[in-house]
Amino acid sequence: MRGRSSMRNLTACIACLLIVLAAMSCGKKEEPPPQAETPQPVVTKSGVAMVSLPGGWFRMGSGAGGETDEQAHRVYVSPFYIDQYEVAQEEFEKVLGRNPSRWKDPKAPAEQIRWKDAAEYCNGRSRAEGLAPAYDPKTWQCDFASAGYRLPTEAEWEYACRAGAETEYFFGDDASRLSQYAWFKDNCTRRPGAVGGKQPNPWGLYDMYGNIWEWCNDFYDEDYYRKCPEKDPRGPPSGETRVLRGGGWNSRARQCRSAYRNEEYPAYTDVCFGPDIHGFTGFRCVRTRGAAGQ
Question: Which CATH topology does 39-294 take?
Fold first, then answer.
């Protein structure tokens, strides 16, 4: 009897202790998670404004109601630098000595740009700053380990555009607010506006929506999201078309969503007989942070 009584007393003591610990835990204030690195503006040797983005996980794509090629999936991107503005005509001409844009304006984005034109600009800008070019001019393969400039991967572009948001747009789901951040079909003047003419996203990046479609480095594959790696996806190894993101001045609001994907032949030559997107393509550059030579 004495042994049973002692066991009951021990059980009761343990139960009381657990209750006290639980009460203390409820009253204890949880420590906030470590604050993520804050994106910082930087200026390159050639005077171009960029933003230094931390690496991180994010939800890429969209859920119900999105397009068939926008399947939501979890992705990690490594830290990188990205141009704060779309490449303007004056900057494109300074590097390559030509300006193929239809609507000539030094402060407007370089448009009517083929994918190869954008890659050539990246190499020229790298050489101007004493960096090893990221693109092989014979194959146009990208060396992601290079310290030179390149086009963003599709994952990097969306990560930068979202700025931590999981909504349709980085400002929420209400498309009626888009005109504050973008030149698009509902408010455009039938041509691109000067870069930086609208409000930036929370990470200080301008014109991520509208104005001109922006080239990514990736080849396009409608089903790529179903088979891509979780960390630093770089698109299929080959393809006929390349990815475009962000929408243009003639795009509907839905086409400017963070997850919306478009495609184009990288070397189209005739804007007169091409689809609606021809003539509205430009780009911005990125650099891999921590690459050799930095």
Answer: paralog of FGE (formylglycine-generating enzyme) (3.90.1580)
